[in-house]
Amino acid sequence: MSANASPQGTVEASAGDVPALGAIPAGLVEEGQIDILNMAAQCFMARGYASTSIDDVARKLGSTKGRIYHFFASKADLFFAVAEVGMQFNYAVVDPCLKMEASAVKRLSHMAFAHCLSMIETQAYQHSVWQGVEIHVRGSTTPEQRERLNALIDSRHRYSELFRTVMEEAAADGAIGYDDLGIARQLMFMTLNSPIFWYKPRPGETAHDRRNIARQCTNFALAGLGIEAGR
Amino acid sequence: MSANASPQGTVEASAGDVPALGAIPAGLVEEGQIDILNMAAQCFMARGYASTSIDDVARKLGSTKGRIYHFFASKADLFFAVAEVGMQFNYAVVDPCLKMEASAVKRLSHMAFAHCLSMIETQAYQHSVWQGVEIHVRGSTTPEQRERLNALIDSRHRYSELFRTVMEEAAADGAIGYDDLGIARQLMFMTLNSPIFWYKPRPGETAHDRRNIARQCTNFALAGLGIEAGR
DNA sequence: TTGACAACATACTCGGTAGTATGTCTAATT
DNA sequence: AATTAGACATACTACCGAGTATGTTGTCAA
After folding, report:
1. What distance in Å separates residue B49's CA from the closest CA in chain A?
2. Which residues, 6+ apart, have CB-to-CB distance to B44 below 8 Å?
3. What pLDDT score was predicted for residue B23?
C-alpha cells in the first residue's frame, strides 16, 4: 500500500546472490512484520501449518497473540503472507537468469541452481510454500482466503512455466532428452526442491558450502534430464 | 496378535508385482480394520494428519467414531498403523530385489523401480509415512507414541540403508558416480518418492501406464547418479 | 499537555475435536 | 433359552486454540 522506500530498494540478485533471511523484498511488508514472518515460517516448517498455533508463533517471538493479530487478520492470512514472500524470493533470483544471453541449457542450468540455492537459503519460507500448494491449508473455508490460496498456486504455476519454456527450448536444441515433459519437470523440481526437507545448516557452514550443495542437486537434476555435468 | 491365516499368506512380490490397495500383508491387521486403514490413509493424504478429524474418517467410512475407536486406541494409533502398513508394503517389494543374483547396479535399478512403483500403487499409505517422518505428528506428547514414532523413523532409516549398501557396492564397481553419498541418496529417494505428491490416477489407466511412470522416475534417478539408461 | 494513534498485552468467548461412557444389536456359544 | 462378547452407534465431556474485545504504554503532533 504505502510507497515505503527501503534502504536496499528492489532486490537485484544475480544467480546465486540470494537474499539472506530477514532481507525481505522491499515494499511487501511493514517493518514490524519481518520478525513475525520469520518466526512463523520457522514454526510452520517445524510442526506444519495445522498443528502450529498462533500462540506457538507468539511464544517464539517472546510476545503474545496481540502482536500477531495486530498485523495479520487471521492465521491463514499470516500463512499466506509467508508463502507469498517465499515466492517473491524465488522470482527475484530466477528472473535474472531468464534474461541471460546464453543457450537454453545454460539458462536452464543457472535457473536450476538459483532456484535450488533459494530453497536452501530461505528454507522455512519455501516449506510454507510447499504446504500451501500441497493444500494442507484446506479448512480455509473462507471464500476470500480460498482466493488467496488460488493466487498462491497460480503464482507457483506461472513460476513453474518459466522453467517449462526454457526446457522446451533446450529440447528443441537437442540438448536434453526426456520422455514426458510434464513428468520430467516434476522430477527436476522435486530434486531441486528437496533441500527444503533434508537440508539442515551445519555449525560452521559457509555460503560456499551451501552453493556446493546446490550444485550437487543441480547436477543431479540436469543429469536426470540427460545433460552432462554442465556448468 | 492372533495367528490369523489369510488366503494369500505372505506377500511374495517380485519386483513390480505390487500389492493392490486392500491387499494388506497378512497377520498385521484384523479383517475389520482394512477399510478403516484405507480410508484413513486417503484422508491423511488429502488434508494432512493434523487437519484430519476422526469424524472425517468415519464419515468417509459411512459410519461413526465408535467403529474407529473400537479398533484403534487413539488418532495417533490409527495413523501409525497406516504408516507401518505402508512401510510393510515397501519392504515386501524391495526385499526380493536385494536377493537377486546380479550386479549391484542391476539390483539397485530393480530396487529403485520397485520402490517407485510402490509409491504409486500405495500412494495414500506412503503419504502418511512421509508425514510421519516429516514429524508433523508432533503433538504426540504421549511417551508411548513417541516410541512409536521413533520406531517408524527407524524402520524408514533401515529401509534407506538397504539402498545405501547397494549404492556403495555399485560405486565400488565404478558403475555410478556421485560427490556426497548422503546427498546422492537423498536426491535419489526424493525422485523416486515424488509420485507420492504429484501422481493422480488417470481414468482409463492400466498397470502398464503406472509401470511406465515408475520407469521414467527410475531412469531419471539413475541418470542423476551417473548411470546410462540401464535396464 | 493533551489528544491521538500505533503497538502491543490481557482477558475472555466459543466452536471444533479427541476421547469416553454407555447403549444396542447380532451372532455364536452352552 | 440364556448368556456372552464382538461390533458398532449415540450422547456426552473436557480441552485446546482461533478469534475478539478491551486495556495499557509509549511516542509524536499540534
Report:
1. 9
2. B52, B79, B82, B124, B127, B128, B131
3. 58
The stretches in chain B having pLDDT less than 70 are 1-30, 135-140, 229-231
pLDDT digits (tens, 9 = 90+) for A182-207: 999 999 999 999 999 999 999 999 99
A68 touches strand D (CB under 7 A): no
Q: Report the helix count and the strand count for chain A, using DSSP H and E.
A: 10, 0
Look at residue A3 in the predicted model and tell me its pLDDT: 34
pTM score of the predicted model: 0.88
Rounded CA-CA distance B46/A114 in Å is 31
Measure the CA angle with vertex A218, ends A217 and A219; round to 5°.
Answer: 95
Q: To the nearest whole number, what is the mean pLDDT of chain A?
A: 86
Disruptive mutation site among A79, A187, A209 for chain B (greatest number of B CBs within 10 Å) = A187
pLDDT score, position A16: 35
Closest CA to B189 of A14, A47, A37, A190: A190
Partner residue facing A48 (CB), from B136, B220, B225: B136
Name the nucleotide with the smallest C1'–CA separation from A64. C9
Cβ–Cβ contacts within 10 Å for residue B104, how many? 18
User: Which has more confidence, A141 or A14?
Assistant: A141
User: Chain A partners of B197 at a C-beta cutoff of 8 Å?
Assistant: 134, 190
pLDDT tens digit string along A2-29? 333 333 322 333 333 334 444 555 555 6
A216 and B139 within 8 Å at the Cβ level: the answer is no
Q: Give the pLDDT mean for A90-102.
A: 95
Band (A143; pLDDT cuts 50, 70, 90): confident
Whose grid coordinates read 527410475? Answer: B218
Q: Which residue carries 491463514 as its cell?
A: A76
Q: Is the CB of A66 under 7 A from strand D?
A: yes
Protein CA B153 to sugar C1' D14 (Å)? 32
| C-alpha distances in Å from residue A127, one per residue of A44, A80, A132 | 8, 12, 9
Q: Distance in angstroms, CA of B33 to C1' of C27?
A: 19
CB pairs A-B closer than 8 Å: 87
User: Which nucleotide comes closest to A73 if you measure CA to C1'?
Assistant: D19
Q: Which of B60, B63, B65, B83 minimizes the C-alpha distance to B140?
A: B83
pLDDT of residue A8: 30
Instruction: Decide: helix, strand or coil at residue B152.
Output: helix
Which of B139, B224, B225 lies nearest to residue A221, judging by beta carbons?
A: B224
Distance CA B168, CA A199 (A): 22
